[in-house]
Design brief:
2 domains, 140 residues, mainly alpha, Four Helix Bundle (Hemerythrin (Met), subunit A), flat
């Protein structure tokens, strides 16, 4: 079992410290867990809301509006469910010592990028190249 790592509340990973040291890994682990908990709480709220909203609405336009809102909410939750899977994958990469490194090039992903998108698996350059290649193949 690893020792608890102390992180001050105002800690932010810095370029002048060793990349993916224990403090940085703990910072991103906590950030990912907090994000996951926020998404799961939203899912619980949606489920409760949908269970409460299964009432009979006599007006056809009100019912249609309610169904549209419900469909939109379910699509949003589906995207968030996929996001939770990516968060879990990032947490596994932390445990395996692979977090913070590009899956294509093996280079370090910038701390700025990871702070903005902690589930990132590629450097910005590799991601751009990947998206350009995807766009070309989509247009074929």
């Amino acid at each position: 079992m690893k020792a608890e790592i102390f992180l001050p509340d105002d800690y932010r990973p810095a370029e002048d410290e060793p990349f993916m040291n224990d403090r940085q890994l703990e910072y991103f682990r906590r950030k990912l867990l907090a994000w996951k908990e926020e998404l799961l709480a939203g899912t619980r709220d949606t489920i409760e809301g949908l269970q409460e909203a299964t009432r009979n609405i006599p007006d056809v336009s009100d019912r249609a509006s309610e169904e549209t809102d419900r469909a939109l909410e379910l699509r949003t939750r589906d995207r968030q469910r996929k996001l939770v899977g990516k968060i879990d994958a990032a947490l596994r990469r932390i445990e395996q010592g692979e977090y913070g490194y590009c899956e294509k090039t093996g280079e370090q992903i910038s701390l700025k990028r990871l702070d903005a998108r902690p589930i990132a698996t590629m450097t910005l350059e590799a991601q751009d190249q990947h998206e350009r290649r995807e766009k070309v193949h989509r247009n074929d």
